[in-house]
Amino acid sequence: QTPVIAIDGPTASGKGTVAQKVAQRLGFHYLDSGALYRLTALSALRRNTALDDEHALAKVASRLNCHFDSGHIFLSEEDVSEAIRAENVGNVASKIAALMPVRQALYGLQLGFHRAPGLVADGRDMGSVIFPHAVLKVFLTASVAARAQRRYKQLIDKGISANMQDLTNDLSERDARDTHRSSAPLKAVEGAYLLDTSALTAEQAVEQILGWYAL
Ligand code: C5P
Questions:
Q1: pLDDT tens sequence across 7-42
Q2: Which of 7, 85, 161, 175 has the smallest set of CB atoms within 10 Å of its CB?
Q3: How far apart are the C-alpha atoms of 30 and 40, rounded to whole Å?
Q4: 31 by DSSP, 3-state: which?
Q5: Which domains can be identified in the chain, with CATH numbers?
Q6: With a 6 A CB cut-off, is 151 part of the ligand 1 pocket?
Q7: Can you tell me the mean pLDDT for 167-176?
Q8: Distance between terminal CA atoms of the chain?
Q9: Is the CB of 10 under 6 A from ligand 1?
């Protein structure tokens, strides 16, 4: 059985960084499932797809021509690694992720990442819906303040101006949407290890997860 490690948690909880490092340490493949929702959002925005037409959006999702290569993300051969991280793309991603047909359209694509020698998958429903048989499930959390602080630093480091209050409001809004939606709401699944990273470095979080995996 090819092992899967599922790492779920809210926006800016550090999942991406931590999951990628765990995958590197174990020599496993890595699935950034949020990127698939972001790619769908970007593609829909570019095609002017109506953002309330769930069937048209599901079609966009099922026809995504994307690939992942050494940390870069491509949509029809164009490197969109930066473009999908834009705030508005994240916002649209979070809205269309509430639509069941869109989630279903991305299901098979996500399963396709499950290959030997193993997979580390990060998202909102990795342990609950996509990989319920994961050998290890981790739910990463961090306070809104800690997450806003991290996002702030990331933006400033990139030379992008940012405002703590706006970031905090945006995170809280997105949390509420991810938690309260009816399709695959964000919550820790039974059997998941909870890891609060508010006061941890990424390295410390990685060590903790590797420790659990070795149990
Ligand atoms: O993780 P990231 O912020 O890149 O994800 C973008 C959006 O996609 C999230 O706000 C969330 O609503 C959605 N998402 C999801 N299920 C996943 C991964 C992401 O609903 N497995």
A1: 999 888 889 999 999 999 999 999 999 999 999 999
A2: 161
A3: 19
A4: strand
A5: 1-28+118-215 (3.40.50.300), 32-116 (3.40.50.300)
A6: no
A7: 89
A8: 17
A9: no
Ligand 1, atom 6: closest residue by C-alpha? 34
Examine the predicted complex and report whether its ipTM is higher than 0.95.
yes
Residue 70: its pLDDT value, please? Answer: 85
Token pair 């949509």 is at which residue?
75
**Residue whose CA is closest, atom 4 of ligand 1?**
34
Give the Cα separation of 168 and 147 in Å (integer): 8
| 8 closest CA partner among 128, 99, 92 | 128
Atom 16 in ligand 1: which residue has the minimum CA distance? 124
- Ligand 1 atom nearest to CA at 177: 12
- Cα–Cα distance for residue pair 203/21, rounded to 1 Å: 8
Query: Which two tokens mark 150?
Result: 């991290």
pLDDT in tens, 63-80: 999 999 988 999 999 999
d(C-alpha 136, C-alpha 209), whole Å? 9
Query: 193: which 2 tokens?
Result: 């290890």
Q: Give the three-class secondary structure for 161.
A: coil
Q: Which of 103, 104, 124 to mutate to test the pocket of ligand 1 (most atoms within 8 A of CB)?
A: 124
What percent of the chain shows pLDDT beyond 90? Answer: 78
Alpha carbons 83 and 38: distance in angstroms, whole number: 9
d(Cα 78, Cα 86) in Å, to the nearest integer? 16
